[in-house]
Automatic annotation (TrEMBL):
Domain GHMP kinase C-terminal: 266-334
Protein name (record): Homoserine kinase
UniProt-listed InterPro entries: GHMP_kinase_C_dom, GHMP_kinase_C_sf, GHMP_kinase_N_dom, GHMP_knse_ATP-bd_CS, Homoserine_kinase, Ribosomal_Su5_D2-typ_SF, Ribsml_uS5_D2-typ_fold_subgr
Alphabetical list of Gene3D superfamilies matching this protein: 3.30.230.10, GHMP kinase, C-terminal domain
């Protein structure tokens, strides 16, 4: 028997104006505890894989234990099938321990995709796949690079999709259902799925000041990311797009979140968004008021507030008074009859494989 653990952090995408670009890996970790029996080339389990699960959504059965439909094992099968391995090559038990809340804007699906790609690499013995190539595979599944970039590489990252050649654009736009036919077990026509083009994604790491912590206020309802992307406009007014230039100035040129000690006014300015939060207000009652009313001038210790990813979690960056800040947001959600829990989080390292 051989065993190892894959550990992947959750993430908060956008941090205000960095829509689909900026991601921050944070300290809640998805773990895959994997056992492989290399003496058995086949088993009674479909696709040679048994999945067990504990954690978020366990009671509701939201996460499938069928290896052909579970997101993590489907992603692993995608990587394997791109390398002519139709199923898990040896009998594999994947025990998923998932404390990342599902559908709350903390990158649970991004973590699942990154962990799944890493699982495919490890069980398939695909040691030639470096992190940059694994990023390509992640981007075939989750087409916005911010969460998967943060979860794979760790820390505070800027990510982007490189301009592609026309033939690669055609390949990368292959619908997800063709990359990952569901259920994966039903697909086995022997055909290879479309492989990712090389070097689709790129990332850079930004500095992060050690004083800055992240307060995540997590409402007790889900907003599926796909739904929260549908409410966004296709075309934006020019003045709103100029806001992105301000963000670039604050994030990149002066690295607002990397300066120590942090400058609350600069960070608050850097976190102003015009591209997604106002449109998502329709899905998240109270969001507009929370984002507009909370600022460093009215709350000691606060640096800025934003929607975490596609929501509904609110992320407050702060240096002190964490509980007081969380309680203010919780009180506003309570007016909408929404209960919340909150967590104090820190930037996290990227995905690790730990041999056990
Ligand atoms: N650990 C996991 N194992 C399997 N599926 C997962 C896991 N984490 C997330 N998912 C899938 O991703 C969905 C949530 O994705 P999404 O709507 O993008 O929200 P989030 O903001 O949490 O990423 C879940 O409903 C589930 O289908
Ligand atoms: N940039 C994406 C990020 C989605 O993050 P998630 O954690 O909600 O999946 C978006 O804003 O749609």
């Amino acid at each position: 028997m051989e065993s190892f653990t894959i550990r992947t952090p959750c993430s908060s995408a956008n941090i205000g104006p960095g829509f689909d670009v900026i991601g921050l890996a944070l300290s809640i970790y998805l773990e895959l505890r994997v056992t492989v029996d290399r003496t058995k080339a086949s088993s009674e389990h479909p696709l040679n894989c048994r999945v067990t699960y504990e954690g978020e959504g366990e009671e509701t059965g939201e996460v499938s234990l069928d290896p052909s439909s579970n997101l993590i094992t489907r992603v692993a099968l995608y990587v394997l099938r791109c390398h002519d391995q139709r199923a898990f090559p040896v009998e594999t038990h994947v025990h998923i321990v998932n404390p990342i809340p599902l559908g709350r804007g903390l990158g649970s699906s991004g973590a699942a995709v990154v962990a799944g790609v890493m699982l495919g690499k490890e069980v398939g013995g695909l040691h030639h796949l470096d992190d940059s190539r694994l990023f390509d595979f992640c981007l075939m599944i989750e087409r916005h690079p911010d969460n998967v970039g943060a979860a794979l590489f760790g820390g505070f990252v800027g990510t982007y999709l490189k301009p592609l050649a026309p033939e690669d654009v055609a390949r990368v736009e292959i619908p997800l259902s063709e990359v990952l036919p569901a259920p994966a077990g039903g697909l086995d026509t022997g055909e290879r799925p479309p492989e990712p083009p090389h070097g689709i994604g790129h990332h850079i790491k930004f500095p992060w000041a050690k004083e800055i912590k992240a307060v995540a206020i997590i409402p007790n309802f889900e907003v599926p990311t796909a739904k929260a992307r549908e409410v966004l406009p296709k075309v934006y007014p020019r003045q709103d797009v100029v806001n992105v230039q301000h963000a670039a100035y604050c994030f990149a040129s002066r690295s607002a979140l990397g300066q120590s000690p942090p400058d609350p006014e600069l960070i608050n300015l850097a976190m102003q968004d015009k591209l997604h939060q106002q449109y998502r207000q329709t899905l998240i009652p109270g969001l507009e008021e929370i984002v507009q009313s909370m600022s460093p001038s009215t709350q000691e210790g606060l640096l800025g507030v934003c929607l975490s990813g596609a929501g509904p979690t609110i992320l407050a960056l702060a240096t002190s008074n964490f509980e007081e800040i969380a309680e203010k947001v919780i009180a506003r959600f309570r007016k909408e009859n929404i209960d919340c829990k909150w967590k104090l989080l820190e930037p996290a390292e990227g995905t690790k494989v730990i041999k056990t």
